[in-house]
Amino acid sequence: MADERGQRKVLSGKVVSNKMDKTIVVQVNRRVKHARYKKYVNRSARYHAHDEENACNIGDTVSIKECRPLSKRKCWRLSEITARAVS
């Protein structure tokens, strides 16, 4: 079934909020080359992701995978916790 729909997008980022029930907010940072000035600029985006077991804490590095819309702003799922926050 996954082969028919193609590959889902996978992003890696840091958890910045886990205050919602079964939802985390992941900030993904990327470096983009500016079109005119040819200088690399840091860009960031925040994604709401589904965390079924409420396993993530703030500061964890996680991998999230694209999925069907689960709510108004949530269309990503927690794939794995790459690194735990030190605390």
What order do the helices and strands come in, and which of them pair?
Elements: H1 2-5, E1 10-17, E2 23-33, E3 40-50, E4 61-66, E5 74-83
Parallel strand pairs: 3-5
Antiparallel strand pairs: 1-2, 1-4, 2-3, 4-5
In words, what does this structure look like?
The chain is mainly β and 87 residues long. It has a single domain (2-83), classed as OB fold (Dihydrolipoamide Acetyltransferase, E2P) (Beta Barrel), CATH 2.40.50.140. Helices cover 5% and strands 53% of the residues. The chain is built from one helix and five strands; from the N terminus they run αβββββ. The chain has one helix at 2-5; strands spanning 10-17, 23-33, 40-50, 61-66, 74-83. It has a five-stranded mixed beta barrel. Strand 1 (10-17) and strand 2 (23-33) form a beta hairpin. The termini are far apart.
Features:
87 residues, OB fold (Dihydrolipoamide Acetyltransferase, E2P), 5% helix, 1 helix, single chain, five-stranded mixed β-barrel
Total helical elements: 1
Which fold name corresponds to the CATH topology?
OB fold (Dihydrolipoamide Acetyltransferase, E2P)
How many distinct domains? Answer: 1
**Gyration radius, in Å:** 15 Å
- Beta-strand residue percentage: over 45%
Helix content: under 10%
Q: Can you give the mean pLDDT?
A: 94
Structural class label: mainly beta
Instruction: Please trace the helix and strand order, writing H or E for each element.
Output: HEEEEE
